[in-house]
Amino acid sequence: MLPVSFLVQIFVRMKCFMTDKKKLKPYTIVVGNPNIGGSGKTPFVIWLVKSLQQKGKKVGVITRGYKRLSLMKKPYVSEKSYNPYWLGDEGALIGEHCQCPVAAYSDRYQAAVALLQSYKCDILIFDDGLQYSGIEFSLKICLFDFKNALGNGFTIPGGPLRSPLSTLEHMDFILNTGAQVPAFEKVNYPFVYHGVSKEEKMISSFSQCTLILGLAHPETVISFVKKHCIHLESVLLPDHELCSPELIEEILKKSSVIMTEKDWIKLKNYFTLDDDIWVLPLTLNVNKDIAASLLKTIRKGSHREILERTFF
After folding, report:
1. Cα–chain-centroid distance for residue 129?
2. Are residues 216 and 158 in the same domain?
3. For 34-92, how does the pLDDT look when each residue is reduced to its tens digit (9 = 90+)?
4. pLDDT score at 14
5. What is the spatial distance between Cα 3 and Cα 279, in angstroms, rounded to a whole number?
6. Cis ω on the peptide bond leading into residue 157 (within 30° of 0)?
């Protein structure tokens, strides 16, 4: 498969070089990773949007809407009703947390134009768009676990990378999530909240529970919940997969069901106050130096020169 990987690398470089990059009026930030699988992009984008909102900025989010069911041949834009079937699970989760306008479409530029026609934004954040070469971004942020996600260093199908490592030269911020002192840490809490009533409850209060997970890397969450609930059954779903009637029926048969917020956003419309469904909250602790440097760069409305790019 390595010869095919070389062809992929050549194609990516040619596409990046030959594609005309369009400019957008707002300050544009892209957050992504060069490898297949999760890297914490969605919780990082949520943190970044909220941090900018606290500074008084009007922020919009652009996403591809991966695995959404919508067959619309145009962008879908929403500010109040964040439906995962239209936005994808990650776009809907970002919208729910940040209460900001979100647009989903495979063509990120068209999605941005559609959003800006309805909403005035100071900043646009593109979730998982490093492989999209059609926009001249103001700031590029790469999240990468150099310890665990590098693999053999080849692109797909011979390796775990979606784009060659040489593309890192064009990043403004490279955040190493696998360092001994990581750029940020995902923090789970030993309590859950009821999906409908929002009542909070300690995980240790369950004598047994069922964990529903649709994540790229579920091992960390399973290990965490197991520390607090010894009798644990785990049901693993494909990442980004939307729910089926069969899955809903299966969940309703079980008691004390715990799921992540990413899974709850896809399933919440199927359950009521009487259902024993609980949600595991997740927050992000970002390194203070990284947060200060990143927000300072955005506040100036500029980007870092490549020779001065920040590597954490």
Report:
1. 11
2. no
3. 876 667 889 999 999 999 999 999 999 999 887 677 666 789 999 888 988 889 889 99
4. 54
5. 45
6. yes
What is the CATH number for 198?
Answer: 3.40.50
Tokens 């947390």 correspond to 97
Q: At what angle do helices 288-299 and 41-54 cross, to 10 degrees?
A: 60
Quote the domain boundaries for residue 211.
190-280
Handedness of CA 104, 108, 112, 118 (dihedral sign): negative
Same domain, 26 and 132: yes
Alpha-carbon gap, residue 309 to 172, rounded angstroms: 5
134-167: pLDDT as tens digits: 899 999 999 987 766 666 666 666 666 767 677 7
Do 134 and 197 have their domain in common?
no
Residue with tokens 């209060």: 205
pLDDT interval class at 307 (50, 70, 90): very low
Report the number of distinct structural domains present in the chain: 2
The mean pLDDT value of the chain amounts to 84
Give the span between the Cα atoms of 124 and 23, in whole angstroms: 12
Q: Are residues 272 and 150 in the same domain?
A: no
Q: Give yes or no: residues 161 and 291 share one domain.
A: yes
Same structural domain, 56 and 132: yes
CA atoms within 13 A on the CB side of 31: 22
pTM of the model: 0.86
CB contact at 8 A, 153 and 186: no
- For residues 140 and 206, state if they share a domain: no
Q: Which of 182, 184, 202 is nearest to 193 (CA)?
A: 202
Is residue 218 exposed (0-12), middle (13-18) or buried (19+ Cβ within 10 Å)? middle
Q: How many CB atoms lie within 10 A of CB 5?
A: 19
Answer yes or no: do 208 and 172 share one domain.
Answer: no
Copy the structure tokens of residue 280. Answer: 């595991």
Q: Which of 94, 81, 149 is nearest to 127 (CA)?
A: 94
